[in-house]
Amino acid sequence: MGLFDSFASQAGNMIKNEARKTGSEFVHNASSAVQNGLANAGNKSEQFTFPNLPTDVASLMALPEATLDSPFKTAALTLVALLQYENNPETCFAMIDALRGPDPMTAMGRSFIKDRMEGKAYKARSFFAGATVANNYTPTAPYTITVSSNPYSYPDPNWATLFVQSAGADSLRQIKMRLKPSTGQWFLNDIQCLSDIRTPAADDPWA
After folding, report:
1. What's the confidence (pLDDT) of residue 188?
2. Does the bond joining 200 to the residue before it have cis omega, within 30 degrees of 0?
3. CA 188, CA 186: separation in Å to the nearest integer?
4. What is the pLDDT, as a whole number, of residue 194?
């Protein structure tokens, strides 16, 4: 092999090594991009504003969101329904049944809500914009709520777990919906957002 051939061989090997290195870096970068994309997939927030709060099932189901064609709408209306517990628990339960569609609440389901809301109806108000511990969870008008999803919100095409933020809690709270494929509607399945929150200032002896 001549001198020129030796140089050419070395140059070829260097190019191949760099190509391998570049290819490896490309695969690594592509893999990272995919992982980052999956981590961010599903991160979404929708805001809903209610100039007038419904006071019965008819006015609830007359709202534009009552098409229930997205789980976000169903989650927002769930909190609107819970606002009625303070005024009339039976109206609240009737609204929730309307949002549950073909699966109305059981006696145990009603008891579950009563146990968590009795004397603590402020929990429902705490999810709406403007509510704070200091103002006893009094939202600003018109009532506005934000509903969010994350990459794990849809474990199955027919199920969704979305999130709402209480002004009296540090972590997001969950509401679970189920899709009825024949109608394309998302119905309420499980209210998981009624754990205790910080006591409003008016009820806190240490405030």
Report:
1. 98
2. no
3. 7
4. 97
Residue 127: how many CB atoms within 10 A of its CB?
Answer: 30
CB 77 within 8 A of CB 53: no
Mean pLDDT, the chain cut into blocks of 10 residues (207 residues total):
46 49 42 39 89 97 98 98 97 98 96 96 98 97 98 96 98 98 98 97 88
Residues 6+ apart with CB under 8 A from 163: 147, 148, 149, 150, 153, 172, 173, 174, 175
Beta bridge partners of 185: 180
Check residue 173 and report its DSSP letter.
Answer: E
User: Which pLDDT score is estimated for 13?
Assistant: 54
From residue 98, how far is each of 60, 93, 162, 196 by CA, in Å?
9, 9, 19, 25
Under a CB-based contact definition with an 8 Å cutoff, are residues 96 and 117 in contact? no
pLDDT, residue 206, reads 84
Residue 69: per-residue pLDDT: 98
| Cα-Cα-Cα-Cα dihedral sign, residues 131, 167, 149, 95 | negative
One DSSP character per residue, 36-83 reads HHHHHTT-EEEEEEESS---SHHHHHTSGGGG--SHHHHHHHHHHHHH
**CB 73 within 8 Å of CB 188:** no
